[in-house]
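INFO batch 0412 | record 1 of 1 | parsing
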Amino acid sequence: MKHVLKNQLFLWRLCFKTCPGYMIYFLYDGFRYQGIIFLEHVLGIRYVLHCAEYQEPFWKAFLFIGIILLINLIQIIPDGYFIHGWSFRAKPKLYRALKEQMFEKASQIDLSCYDDPDYYNDFVLAVAEAEGSIDRFLAMCNMMMQGLTIIFTTGIFYLMTDAMGILFVLASFVLRFVFARILNKLNYKVRLKVNPLERKRNYVSRVFYLNDYAKELRLHPQVGDALEKEFCEADDAIIEEQKKVGKKRSLLGFVNGYLVGDFIMDGLYITYLVFQAAVLHTIDYSNAVILFNRTGSLRRGMTNIAELFPKAQENSLYVDKIRAFLAYEPKIKRMEGEPVPEGNAPLILDHVSFRYKEEMEDTLKDISLKVQPGEHIAIVGYNGAGKTTLIKLLMRLYDPTGGKITYHGEDIREFSPDEYRHRFGVVFQDFQMYGATLRENVVMNRIPEPGSDSAQASAIDASVISALERAGFGERLRSLPNGLDTQVTTEFDKKGVNFSGGESQKVAISRAFYANADILIMDEPSSALDPIAEYELNKAMETAAKGKTVFYISHRLSTTRDADRIILLADGRIAEEGTHAELLAKDGKYAEMWNVQAGRYK
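INFO prediction complete | emitting tokens
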């Protein structure tokens, strides 16, 4: 319970710090809502009935109703503003306050976290449930205030009018709570059994309505027939599971809904009230009517309070994920470390090894390599040889588990990661296009602050256009009506442009050209390009990469043949090293790969 309360206090502090006035009024609103109901439905109706029962002058009832209407009018004006105005502005602020913390942390967590399925699942769940956790917390606050107000106001009314009546309400509440728990457990067990069957049904449904499968379903209609059969079998199994518990569920529903609800309250309790009023004359008829009318409210108030902890416990499970995510301390801290000396320098790998997890084998094994400034290195090898892992180590997206990497004679772990990575211009194989302008998709994190002068903006645009031209995107750029202001993808703008795979790759390559970094990394830079575009890219690289250290990773050896040195990785080790001609002369694995590819064109 202490842990659950701590998690709810975490949300309260976040919400109160973000919108203190809104949170105070939010709690007041739960009290106000049930307070007005008590004023109208208990005190108001009771007084009017009392006036009728004892033949009081009409003006007394009329005056009392007028006072209640005036109170209602006074409080409904700020309430309308709260519901229809304030809430629509405050809730996005609460969501943003939590999401900003999470986005900031997401930009800091180590890349290795994405390789851990358990952590990644928790991370995804935390982000997905951020807004839901706040919504559930606010709903619980409202439930708590309403429940406490009902119990306080109606409870006092019962104690002052007929204390014995509370026993009927308590009996109904406790029995309903017990049978509801039994019914919920039964429903939960059924849910566990039908869940995989429902997932199968949902999968079949997706296959039939998603565009991804449309062509193949039409080419292979027998697949659709088999899936339809699977759907029917799963549906029949779900129906069978529901049949098994049908009678028990009906009996529990009858007991919970009628015996402990209608029978006790509408049968026994009303009989008790009539006996008290008509036979014993211990309570007024007006009080008997109000007491009976408020039993449901008192029971709801008790239910609200009783359900608070289970709901808080459920919400706490999600808040645990959020707090654990926010509390994660990155091993590689972006802003810590020394500045990187100016200029390019040798990049040296000294007996570097790396494994993704302790229990796994090394992905890279005892790699030693010295790369001179301005040298062009091609890294080749079969899938899974460790090529991309090596590049991630060079960029310090991971730290080696053995050995070290030095730059300017210093271990790169001594440098500020942000500043060190700024020395790299990178095109990853799995690059992404963002729902932003073409300019922003090229400039990326080097976007100037808003309000920059026009001369600076013009210089940036000139650099962006130059980078796009060198990447072979110039002709396509000139065909775009909005030029650099073209929105990439139609995600947020129906006038946006969805570029082809080759065009997108050229935009991604232009990022590396625009960065004007000391070290360029090109991971499969021509995988989506046609032969002519690949040839033009290689020519552009010769010009753009003069004086820069360049790493190529490619399965297309035509891209790597002109490199100063070729490194062939096999089983996490450097298997061969040399120029294209030297490796062909060795007649080893590189020569075998080259001959297989070149043979297609002979």
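INFO post-check: The radius of gyration is 35 Å.
INFO record closed
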